[in-house]
Amino acid sequence: MTTNAVDNNNNTADAPPHNFDADLWNEDLAPTTEATRTWNWLHFAALWVAMVVCVPTYMLAAGLVSEGMAWWQAILTVLLGNVIVLIPMILIGHAGAKHGVPFPVLLRSAFGTRGAKIPALARGLVACGWFGIQTWVGGSAIYVILNSLSGNAFQGEPLPFLSIDLAQTLCFLAFWALHLVFIKFGTESIRWLESYAAPFLIFMGLALLYWAYNKAGGFGGMLSAPSQFGPGGAKEGQFATTFVGGLTAMVGFWATMALNIPDFTRFAKSQRDQMIGQAVGLPIPMALFAFIGVAVTSATVTIYGEAIWDPVALASRMGGFGIIVALAALALATLTTNLAANVVAPAYGFSNMSPSKINFKLGGYITAGIGVAIFPWKLLETAGGYIFTWLIGYSALLGPIAGILIADYFILRKRKLDTDALFRHDGQYGANNGWNVAGLVALVIGILPNLPGFLHVAGLVESVPDIFKTIYNYAWFVGLFVAGALYLLLAKKGD
Question: pLDDT tens digits, residue range 228-240?
Answer without folding.
Answer: 887 777 787 788 8
